[in-house]
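Appendix B. One record, verbatim.
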Amino acid sequence: MDIAASVATRAVPGIPRDGGGPVFREPWEAQAFAMALALHERGLFTWSEWAATLADEIARAQASGDPDTGETYYRHWLATLERLVAAKGVATPDTLHRYRDAWDHAADRTPHGAPIELRREDFR
């Protein structure tokens, strides 16, 4: 485990991990984790700010019926990432939704196992 991941796992409670560090069920979870590390290293937010925002996202989800079995942890992580990126002015919520919709469209047309590539027509 690299130093940044080690610091994050100590600073942010609840990160799914084993003896070797964070564990991920899907590749996108590792990518969301890595994006948060990179944005933290660039000074976009502190780990205290991240942890507070993540706790708020988890509380919101629980209030909406999330059973909090641990399987949705990285969905909350991603929502926190999107929330902080928008709050810090890196991207607007509309831009985030536009790209999310484009990725969904690109994934729908991509054969299983092939890399997903965004195309202009994905932004319809």
